[in-house]
Amino acid sequence: MSIKNAFFVVLFYEKQANKILDSTKTQIPRITLKLKPSSLQQYCYKHLIVSILMLIILPLYSAAQLNTSYTPIEAKGTIPERFFQGMKGTTEIKIIVEDERIRKKQSKDFKTTTRFTLQEIFLSGSIYYNDPCTQYVRQVANQLLQHLPESPDISVFVSRFVTSNAAVWQDGTLILNIGLLAQLENEAQLAFVLAHEIGHHQSGHPFRQYVRTQKLSNIQKRALDNLKANVAYTKKSEEEADAFALDLLAKAGYDTEAVSQTLDLLVHGRHDSPENLLARLSPTVVVCNEMERQTLFNTGENTKSHFTPTMIRQRQEQLSGSLSGQSFLVSEEDFVHINNIARFELIENAYREADYVLSLLHALLLQEFYPANTYLTDKIAENLFQLYLYEQRGQLKSLLNLNLENDIRLKGYHQISCSLRKMDEPALRQLTENYLQQQYQVHQESSGTIAIIMAKYMELVYGQKKARPYFENYLEHFKGGKHYWYAKNRFE
Amino acid sequence: MLKTVLNSKICLGLFFLVFLTSCRGALRIDRTRDFNAKKIRIEKMVSLDPDFELLVTSGQRSTQRKYKRATAKEIQLNNTLYRNAQKNGIQVEMIDTKRLEPKDTPYFRDLAPLKREILQVSFLQDFISKKGRTFDKHTFNRHETGPVIASHFSHLAKQYDTPFFAIQGVTSHRKPVKGKLIWLITVPPLGVVSFFSPEVDTYYYTIIANVETAEIVYREIRRVDAPASDTNLNAVIYDSFKIISR
């Protein structure tokens, strides 16, 4: 990049940054750059160079990279101040709906509980920071916030949680799960999710919900814990938030058809497959038919959920009329890129949460688009190994049952889960071994993950003696790798 | 005279009953066969953000007061852990999230995921014995293998100069207090005992993972039928470190 080009890029982002600051009416001072065209270093103001990297260079670089590999997002850079606020309570929590009947103590307790819950979430390592997903989602949120008469103090974060959900707290912290970001089809849908949560915040639903739970717990005599106060809102609250979101979407110029589309997505899921994707790995995989799948999994409606088809239909009917707007206001290209990153992150985080079926399903689905991506091959191998490990320890069935509590409605998920239940230990061993052997022959010197998984598998099934050459291979080719000291320990 | 003797006997009896109530508790330890073997000697371990949790039940005293008390108790717990580890010749490096600074990215990059992994695996997997049984009924159990964690944390052993990473904490909660009056009316002596017995259960837990072998090697849980006082915790933690350092 020449000095002249850099100059224009810096100016462009200065304008963009000030536009956002004006629209959000925050107290942050205006950005002014002192340009001295003596060297590139002097042009590049500290914060703007980060923005340039995040918004232009990294997406382009990463987009090209996704065809061959993917590196999961790790914590890097300075930790944001929000993570340390904790119980100090530097953020004002406004109780919007003050009911005279509600004792003062309840609002005081609510504030403490909110701060404590958020402190736990932020310090758990489940929230992304200095990452492209959060940057992009904040841009979309700003598009909406500028259309509110009194711009609320909303701070948007993206979490590593894989469930399709988002949540807002009364202090203005809005957390969008990566699982939901991966499911969305366009920017307008993302805007609807954010607007819906802003609607909850503006109507004071978190506090109302807290009071409701308090009343419930008094009846049940200490049966509920305060920390569990943020459970589902009432149907009325959801409809209020929907109506608020529809209005805000129309004001911002987004296509309001997104409301109905997003509600549909919440029921059916976007990325799904009616076929059993596990059968792609081996023709010998036991495939469940529709009857077996339905017998194993209760596909009936959960009456407590607001995402059941009936409830969603009712919510859709409440929202009459649709205005034509745009599906993308920030950038279509950025959305596609961020959505792809979110799908890769979903695979990574489902694996970390030990939901190996979900991780495997999305890895197999994404492999259709990126057949040469080595990260996906590695993840399929890791997931198969973990499933076999649990099977060998006699704990696979309990793991599968536990993950079903996540209320995942994807047919493909149920297909894989059903197959795994029907497979016995030798069948799963054969499937895992075949896939690992196949990948090991190709990637034993290029992929550290395949090399270490193969060594672990050999040790688990055939004992330490047979695994030695595989550990030796890892030590030889991946010196300094993350598994190096483990491999060395096993080898010795 | 008779009255005095009777009174003193009643007092003695009551004292004995009260004494008995203070002796209740439970302990369970699971460890791998290699743990505490002569070749392994724990000299240092990293304690990942020890936690003190006062389970708050709604409709009770002020929530804010309970959280403040839990925070104060957490500092006290950190000191007790540190002191007792030293007494048993173990160097403990405390990672306290309350003291994190903006530059402490390694916590979110490595340690928070490790803590999550240890807790998750400990919940999902059991220790496995030679005979294939996952559970022994003994208080001290030795097993062939422990729960398996991800091996990509092994580089932390060199970074922190020890492969042992621990999760320690205390949970304290009120017991249900139903039926005291019924006991007092129907069986008066036992009813009296129930009035003297503490209404709080305190649990102390330790999970130790070896990141080089990618395995949870030690897991213990202790229950004390008493509030989490400094004296109680001190005794429990000292005993815990004594077993770990053997």
The SSE order of chain B reads HEEEHEHEHEHHEEH
Strand order of the largest sheet of chain A: 1-3-2
Question: How many strand units of chain A?
Answer: 3
> Tally the helices of chain A: what do you get?
21
Q: What structural class do you assign from the helix and strand content of chain A? A: mainly alpha
Order of helices and strands of chain A: HHHHHEEEHHHHHHHHHHHHHHHH
Helicity of chain B, as a percent range: 40-55%
Summarize the structure.
The complex is a heterodimer of chains A (492) and B (246). Helices cover 59% and strands 3% of the residues of chain A.
SSE diagram, text form:
The complex is a heterodimer of chains A (492) and B (246).
Chain A: H1 3-24, H2 40-43, H3 46-65, H4 104-123, H5 132-145, E1 155-159, E2 166-168, E3 173-177, H6 178-181, H7 187-202, H8 205-219, H9 235-252, H10 257-268, H11 290-296, H12 309-318, H13 332-352, H14 356-367, H15 374-392, H16 396-404, H17 411-422, H18 425-443, H19 448-462, H20 464-477, H21 484-491
Parallel strand pairs in A: 1-3
Antiparallel strand pairs in A: 2-3
Helix pairs in contact in A: 1-3, 5-7, 7-9, 7-10, 10-12, 13-14, 14-15, 15-18, 15-19, 18-19, 19-20, 20-21
Chain B: H1 2-21, E1 25-32, E2 44-48, E3 51-54, H2 63-87, E4 91-95, H3 105-124, E5 140-143, H4 156-159, E6 164-174, H5 180-186, H6 188-196, E7 200-210, E8 215-224, H7 230-245
Parallel strand pairs in B: 1-5, 2-4, 2-6, 3-6
Antiparallel strand pairs in B: 1-8, 6-7, 7-8
